[in-house]
Amino acid sequence: MIKFYRIIRQRLLSENKITKYMIYAIGEIVLVVIGILIALQLNTWNQDRIDRKMEKKILTDLRQELKTNKQKIRAAIERREDRYNPLDRYMKLMEEDSIPFLDFLEIHKVNFFSGQISPSFGVINSLISSGEVNLISNDSLKYLATDWKDVIAVFMSVEKSSFDGHRRFSDYFDTRFPFLGNQFHNKSPEDLQDRFEKIIDDVEYRNKLITVKQHFEGAIRIGEETIEYIDGMTNLIDREIEKMN
Questions:
Q1: Strand, coil or helix: what is 8?
Q2: If you ran DSSP here, which 8-state letter would residue 135 be given?
């Protein structure tokens, strides 16, 4: 093709047809430029296709990781609710100064520790460290993904504070009334009743229980807010993936 164009140029020059030569040369340049632009466009289209394919995989992996973390947080909330609800009823009885001895035993048969979650960060860490998070074309979703670790960090901080608060109560309670799970078989009902009467009107005991209850409420509330954040991200991800299908 190049040899063909060269022959035409040489013939025009040999025939002294300068004007036609110039027009031809300009036309040839235009054709070359058009060819380059088409090649660039095809390359851009191909790269965009590759990026969208990668984005779909990123969003699919991220959605799965969010689902895993949501399950962990939901399980943590349910564990706290299992301990919080009886405590809430118990403290209402305390406000009425009408706590039965058996309720006292029941509420303290187990401690208030409900554990701490270990979130999964493999996908989001990889996206941020590699810069692949920028392949997410939806800006709102990109910002949510970038801020995700800060959001879960708040929940983990509240969890840690709750755990430490429950540990302090446990330390206090064990010095006043050693863990009842080990007491039923080696203490008489009279002895347990005597310990109950000594602690039930203790102001410090009541205040520490109020703190434990507040820790539960805070951890449950922040947990629910974190799940709402996850749901918002997941809904955006689902819409983006559906547009790609």
A1: helix
A2: G
Residue 35 host element (H or E): helix 18-95
Token readout for 217 is 């409420």
pTM score > 0.85 for this model? Answer: no
Tokens of residue 20, six digits: 């036609």
Contact, 88 vs 107, CB < 8 A? no
The CA–CA distances, whole Å, from 232 to 178, 229, 243 equal 46, 5, 17
Place of tokens 């507040």: 214
User: In Å, how far from its chain's centre is CA 197?
Assistant: 46
SS (H, E, C) 99-130: CCHHHHHHHCCCCCCCCCCCCCCHHHHHHHHH
Q: How far apart are the C-alpha atoms of 241 and 245, rounded to whole Å?
A: 7
Q: Does residue 195 or residue 172 have the better pLDDT?
A: 172
| Rounded Cα distance, 111 and 181, in Å | 9
* pLDDT top residue among 48 and 225: 225
* DSSP summary character for residue 178: -
Q: What is the DSSP letter of 188?
A: -
CA 116 to chain centre: 15
In whole angstroms, how far apart are CA 142 and each of 18, 103, 135? 59, 50, 9
Lookup result for tokens 């406000």: 95
- Is 140:237 a contact under the CB 8 Å cutoff? no
* Spatial separation of the C-alpha atoms in residues 134 and 142, rounded to whole Å: 7
Q: Taking the CA atoms of the chain, what radius of gyration do you get in angstroms?
A: 35
Do residues 72 and 119 lie in contact, with contact meaning Cβ atoms separated by under 8 Å? yes
Task: Give the model confidence (pLDDT) of 103-160 as tens digits.
Answer: 887 787 777 777 788 899 999 999 999 989 998 989 999 999 999 999 999 999 999 9
How many other C-beta atoms can be found within 10 angstroms of the C-beta atom of residue 211? 14
